Amino acid sequence: MTQRTRLSPELRRAQLLKLGVELLSTRTLDELSIEDLAAEAGISTGLLFHYFGSKREFHLAVARAAAAQLLEFLAPDKTLEPAPRMRQSLRGFVDYVSQNRDAYTSLVRGAATGDEAMRALFEETRTAIADIVLDNVRELGIESTPALVMTVRGWVAFAEEVTISWLREPRIDRDALLDLLERGFFQLAMVAVGADAVSPYLPDPS
User: Fold this and answer.
1) CATH number for position 130
2) CA distance linking residue 103 with residue 20, whole number of Å
3) How many domains are contained in the chain?
4) Burial tier of 96 (Cβ tally within 10 Å: 0-12, 13-18, 19+)
5) Residue 50 pLDDT greater than 90, yes or no
6) Are both 187 and 91 inside the same structural domain?
7) Residue 169, Cβ neighbours under 10 Å: how many?
8) Which end of the chain is more exposed for a tag (fewer CB within 10 A), N or C?
């Protein structure tokens, strides 16, 4: 058990959220125990409720912190050209899901629950991911049409499912997974904007 130390309410709350996200790397949100986390932090469960109000509010705060961490992994490197930047963001996505499989699964499952706040968080996160992709696409000179916006949203869902399936049964290596996601995106994008389905933004596979 970690020795209890005096922290300001803001720092204590941040510590609890950090611990919660760390624990999500090995368990789902439903399996995140208030008692275990309070013991790890060296506080009582009553004090934990003082900071978050309820178990639901605590779980929601942890899920929000996990979503923010995911977006940090995807944060585009503005020093890169748009196409390599897309690849870099894809690496960040795969790395995050690989390292935090249960946390990400909890976030995805939140969209299917009756909890309106969890569904809203999931939608906000997916929208933020789609916006990162669309920003890169605009810098490539591809027009952001309504069809392309819908395609990007659908591709994000595709990337989620393919990556989670790959973690369950990795039949291809990581680079092949990245190639699949990247090529799949650009081919779909070309179709969405009515261009040739062979994307000029990808290296020649030969």
Assistant:
1) 1.10.357.10
2) 10
3) 2
4) buried
5) no
6) yes
7) 7
8) C
Other beta carbons less than 10 A from residue 134's beta carbon? 17
pLDDT given for residue 196 in this prediction: 59
The parent domain of residue 40 ranges over: 9-58
Q: Which amino acid is at 56?
A: R
Distance between CA atoms of residues 103 and 70, nearest Å: 10
Is position 132 within any domain?
A: yes
- Give the tokens for residue 51: 């900071």
Q: What is the mean pLDDT of the chain?
A: 83
SS3 71: helix
- How far is 24 from 97, CA to CA, in rounded Å? 11
Q: How many C-alpha atoms does 33 have within 13 Å on its Cβ side?
A: 8
111 and 163 share one domain: yes
Q: What whole-number distance in Å separates Cα of residue 119 and Cα of residue 116?
A: 5
| 90 HSE (CA, 13 A, CB side) | 26
DSSP string, 54-111: SHHHHHHHHHHHHHHHHHHHH---TTS-HHHHHHHHHHHHHHHHHHTHHHHHHHHHHT
The string of pLDDT tens digits covering residues 54-86 is 888 888 888 888 889 899 999 888 899 888 898
Q: Is the pLDDT of residue 23 over 60?
A: yes
pLDDT at residue 1, as a whole number: 45
pLDDT in tens, 176-198: 999 999 999 988 988 888 865 55
Residue 204 located in a structural domain? no
**205 part of a folded domain:** no
- How many CB atoms sit inside 10 A of residue 21's CB? 21
